[in-house]
Specification:
Layout: H1 2-34, H2 41-51, H3 54-73, H4 78-106, H5 113-144, H6 175-183
Helix pairs in contact: 1-2, 1-5, 2-4, 3-4, 4-5
């Protein structure tokens, strides 16, 4: 079990490193919007499409599954499990709201910059706080429970799709995003 737990934990940590890169890019583009400059809306769209896709379909489901297994071993984890499920739902809603803002702007709808900046601030803050909490509290706990956790036989709801940006091959719809990551020297 220990090797399997270590592998899943490394996958989760790698996802967090990748998400951190994209959050930095998102933050920079939103700073442009806030300072009355024009951000790269195509880049914002690509970042948010990724952030509301892969993490929700794969990363969060994998975390939820691992944490449920942890709660089965340590009943005291039940409260944290409820928090995680709530966090993931809230982050998903905030990300989808921000993506909706960007799509509306791209389609010509006039939105107040302040509102978009506030939606982005809420999303960025919530996402970073959540990842920090997992990195500092939950991932070390997973590591400490390696011998006790049974992570065999992942259920079907845990996505197995390859990461469309940071995986073995870049999905065609994300080539522009991948090039932006490389050009800025942010590739992990």
């Amino acid at each position: 079990m220990t090797k399997q737990v270590s592998q899943i934990l490394e996958e989760l940590r790698e996802d967090h490193r990748n998400l951190t890169v994209l959050l930095a890019m998102l933050d920079r583009e939103i700073a442009r919007l806030k300072s009355q400059e024009d951000p790269d809306y195509e880049l914002l769209h690509d970042i948010l499409t990724y952030m509301t896709g892969y993490p929700d379909a794969v990363h969060h489901k994998k975390e939820d599954w691992v944490y449920a297994r942890m709660a089965a071993v340590r009943s005291s984890m039940q409260r944290d499990l409820v928090r995680i499920e709530h966090d993931h739902a809230e982050i998903s809603n905030l990300g989808n709201k921000l993506l909706s803002d960007i799509k509306a702007i791209e389609s010509g709808t006039v939105l107040r910059r302040f509102d978009v900046v506030e939606d982005a601030r809420r999303y960025l803050t919530r996402q970073r706080d959540h990842m920090r909490w997992e990195d500092e509290k939950l991932f070390p706990l997973i590591d400490s429970l390696k011998a006790e956790l049974d992570l065999s036989g992942k259920p079907s709801q845990v996505g197995i799709m390859a990461d469309p940006v940071f995986g073995p091959s870049v999905e065609s719809s994300f080539h522009t995003l991948f090039e932006a990551i490389k050009n800025e020297g942010l590739a992990p």
